[in-house]
Hints:
- By secondary structure, this protein is an alpha/beta fold.
- The chain has one domain (about 20-200): Nucleotidyltransferase, domain 5 (2-Layer Sandwich), CATH 3.30.420.
- It is about 40% helix and about 15% strand.
- The chain contains 8 helices and 5 strands.
- The protein has a 5-stranded mixed β-sheet with strand order 3-2-1-4-5.
- The longest helix has 24 residues, at about 150-175.
- About 45% of the residues are buried.
Amino acid sequence: MARRPLHASLFTEEPRDSWYFERRAHQRNFRRIAGVDEAGRGPLAGPVVAAAVVLPYGIDLPNVRDSKQLSPSQRQACYEKICSVATDISIGEVSAVEIDRTNILAASLKAMRKAVKQIEPLPDFLLIDGPWEVEIQLAQKALKRGDQLSISVAAASIVAKVHRDAIMEAYHQSYPDYNFAKNKGYGTKEHRLALARFGSCPVHRLTFRGVPSKAANRKTT
Length: 221
């Protein structure tokens, strides 16, 4: 069964506000519209995490925007607001081991698909950050800069980022040499110096440039 086809006129105008894409889908009788985004494509360590968020149609969330444009305190406040009002929220994670086994794009799309499939009942329309659709039999629209154009995608970007940051802060307790609590696995100067000194740990992505291939006790299954 193929995905439901989209009418060519579904998105024919320039977006004028953060509800534009949701409104156009709603006008075509889609009712459970999920924004989907990921966090953690670039880091040297940790999983890639995706979130799918279904918001009540038309709800006012004036401070919700692309998570990268928010300070940590602003992001946390938005996260708490989203969690209090969202119709549905789900998370999909793909580990560093699987990222190495496939590649970061495939892992990111798998995390998105996992997040979407955990929503019950399933959404009937997806708005996805980035140029690639998710391999699932649902009507969808991939949006470059979607986290800047769609309120639902922006909400998903915040949820994914806050969730992933919490994972990396927990990893810091097991692997304090790398200061994951601060760098969240990104390749900061401090992190790269730690890699040069200590080598990689079990949550590093061994296929990423700058990560030593030796990782003691790393699980490979």
